[in-house]
């Protein structure tokens, strides 16, 4: 089964909540035709289905916590396989959330070619999420949960970036300033929204 993904080009997209991961991924899809898989979107789709598993997931996400590793990984793998015949590569948005998740992904699916690090200041992220919360209908776009998501990001997810820096696959795009600070690859040169 995993054979289908043997030569898949994989890009992890990592950044804090509201840093703009989803927004940047859309731009890459438009330019490079990659398949965008947002782990958060996959989880929200499961919640929307009304399944028993979805109900459990909703409770976890509403608290700003992480859902169990295996659940997310299985969903991502399933979605990747479904697109394997047509995909030029995959943008895995919002995963890994902790070093362990990255290790498991590599064991069960494969190694990433690149990690795109979408960087934004905490203040910027909070402001954007509060604004998005006015219309998103997302149960976790509220002040209290945003704070928990941020704390968890700094504690669990930032170490993921340091982990992959060791193998020099991290490309950073800064969403704090008007212009992109770092345009280190073809991939990031398409990332040009104003903050
Ligand atoms: N002004 C400005 N707003 C942006 C930019 N990128 C994203 N946003 C807005 O910020 C909010 C968060 O962006 P998303 O792309 O949803 O961020 P995300 O990192 O996917 O966030 P999660 O879905 O919480 O993981 C959205 O309302 C976007 O419209 C940017 O470069 N400039
Ligand atoms: N790999 C993942 C991705 C998302 N989640 C859960 C926890 C997150 O707060 C929610 C929403 O994820 P999403 O990536 O859409 O949003 P944030 O970056 O947290 O704002 O889903 C998870 O537990 N594990
Ligand atoms: Mg998103």
TrEMBL record:
Protein's name according to its UniProt entry: Adenylate kinase isoenzyme 1
State the reactions this protein catalyses.
thiamine diphosphate + ADP = thiamine triphosphate + AMP; dADP + GTP = dATP + GDP; dTDP + GTP = dTTP + GDP; GDP + ATP = GTP + ADP
- GO: which molecular function terms? AMP kinase activity; ATP binding; nucleoside diphosphate kinase activity
Function field: Catalyzes the reversible transfer of the terminal phosphate group between ATP and AMP. Also displays broad nucleoside diphosphate kinase activity. Plays an important role in cellular energy homeostasis and in adenine nucleotide metabolism. Also catalyzes at a very low rate the synthesis of thiamine triphosphate (ThTP) from thiamine diphosphate (ThDP) and ADP.
The enzyme's E.C. designation: 2.7.4.3, 2.7.4.6
Q: Where is this region: NMPbind?
A: 38-67
Database matches in HAMAP family: Adenylate_kinase_Adk, Adenylate_kinase_AK1
Describe, as the record does, how this protein assembles with itself and its partners: Monomer.
Q: What is the lineage of its organism?
A: Eukaryota, Metazoa, Chordata, Craniata, Vertebrata
Which PROSITE patterns does the record cross-reference, listed alphabetically? ADENYLATE_KINASE (PS00113)
Grouped into one coarse class, the protein's main location is: cytoplasm
In the record, the note on similarity to other proteins reads: Belongs to the adenylate kinase family. AK1 subfamily.
Q: What domain of life does the native source organism fall in?
A: Eukaryota
Q: Which InterPro entries match?
A: Adenylat/UMP-CMP_kin, Adenylat_kinase_CS, AK1, AK1/5, P-loop_NTPase
Main EC class of this protein? transferase
Q: Where does AMP bind?
A: 39, 44, 65-67, 94-97, 101, 138, 149
Q: Which Pfam families match?
A: ADK
